[in-house]
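FOLDING PROBLEM:
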Amino acid sequence: MANTLSYPEEITKASRHPLEKILENRIAIIDGAMGTTIRTYGMTEADIRGERFKDSTKDLLNNGDLFSLTQPQMICDIHRRFLEAGADIIETNTFGATSITQSEFFVEDPREHGGRKDPEFYQKIIDDSFLDGLAWEINEQSARQCREWADRVGNETGRQRFVAGAIGPLTVSLSNSPDADDSGFRVVTFDQVKAAYAQQVRALIAGGSDLLLVETIFDSLNAKAALVAIREVFDEDGKELPVMISAAVGRGGETLISAQTTEAFWNAVKHVKPLSVGLNCSLGPDLMYPFLEELSEKANVAISCYPNAGLPNPLSETGFDLGPPDMARYLSDFARGGLINIAGGCCGNTPEHIAAIAKALEGKAPRKWVA
């Protein structure tokens, strides 16, 4: 059985990174929502399948990471638009690009036939050569697509741009049991989650990522597995990148599944010595301020913030309430409060939102911290 307490004491930062110097002098801009922007292109089930996945038996349209393989021109166009909007950091299209998450789209659910998902089921997922290869390809190709456009726009503008390898939260939880009658049951083990993340990390590095971003953390133990995987890959492969960490919190300021307060979350990850720690997704910027303020007071690293564009609204063009001027105003408030070093948007934020945020924050002083 996996020992979930066997994580390393410290992940040291890579040698001083160019982005670190930028963060000391100005607020850096991170891109917006890939999923939201994809929806504006009107893609269909046939578009995401292409020839390669035309015979898949499950619906794939919600598997946005797969577009990096079947519609690379669209994904590259989105990266270009975010870069031209002013993003210093663009994220790879890999939020769900692990074998575990991809299995939701390619493997029959045993629960449909009276079975259950459990560690035995997920060990087969980890050992599945198709899913392993697919996860690698999505991550490597997405990183290469980002790398190409970050370098192209960086060279054209004379301003270096950075690729963040996006590592999402998974569709399974190490913190909670799905069985009300067995609180000790987990569908997956720590080691299985760590193995899936290690594969993702290696592929993101192989594709040319500058940074690794463990984001939208609502289960702190899942994030811990990702951070242990990162450390082990660094040690085994002899290459190290800066790590960014970003949590999703609810209205009370706790991570959504593991229910850690903002301060407790920072205490759980500060040994990693990340380049930045922050909050994203879940809450709109109007609700995020007090939790961002608390994190800014406690953390001795750069602070990132990329909230949702308010609350979901199916009648809105983007599916969320806040437009570009709204997001620009709220992020400006964060900057005036001396709370942020990296700013952008999560769900509901298009390139137009990021352009408005970038313009509003131009010339505004970044948060100061003592490392």
In short: The domain at 18-361 is CATH 3.20.20.330 (TIM Barrel).
